[in-house]
Amino acid sequence: MEYHLLFHAPCFDGLVSAVFAADLLERPGRHLSFHPVGYGVKDRWLGSAPAPSPFGVVDFLYHPAADFWVDHHRTAFLTEEARESYESRRAQGDRVLYDKEAPSCAALMWRQLPLPRRDRQREELAKATVKTDSARYESPREAVFGNAPPLVINRSLHGASDALVLELLALLREHPLREVAKHPAVVARAADVDEAAQRALGVVERRIRMIGTTAYLEWNASDGPLNRYLPYLVCRDAAHSVVITHMGDGLSKLTAMRNPWLEPSSADIGVLVEALGGGGHRRVGSAFMRAPDTDVRAAGSQLAKTLAAAT
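Below the sequence we write its predicted structure tokens.
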């Protein structure tokens, strides 16, 4: 029997959550099929089952047909009916688990599920997701250029293809972080991302501006990848950042983030970007917008002003 497992990608927490789910769901006679998913599917997520049954979902939106589901995002429920479905299933003891206060989905799974592998290698994975998913970096420079194994792997995921994501999933299921970080595909991808970050830093310095206490930046996908922490290397005192990435063909991505080194008072970013069709956490969120650039700029500018006013 084939079992389909959907997980948030390209995301380190999503990857590790898939590793833990595979440990839990794998059994003789069952073949696990893995499917990376991103918020671009949000509009059609509840319209029909995203995969043949049975399927599970980790670190991503709730689906009432999922046989197994775990998440920690504040925007996990697209409708009130979806939330009610979860509550009903939880009361019945179904395999659904949610905690919006959990620092990462993998940490939630490690803490609350009867995972069959509870060795040092798996514990290291859970701890690593807490740092990357909760932005518990020592400095903006560590966030952008840190050389610890999970940080190198996390950087290699920036803009990664589904093929690389699935390759990393297979590696993390079998090997410790230090070995995966040395894999040629990871080393090559991380090196490319680091080189791009160095180039991008100069562009950010020229383009970024402040809207109140919010660092505001417009980026073009043709400029290369942009690490979301780069604005804080330039504007260290910014309470928040709002970045618009123009991806072409009328598609843009709007990302908002609270400065993790200042921890200012703030509105719930996940809720704010949900109104724009996206999702996320209290501290960070993003939304894809298919609209004219002028409309995207207006939304980004207004979000920057809203965050500044809430600081």
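The chain has a mean pLDDT of 94.
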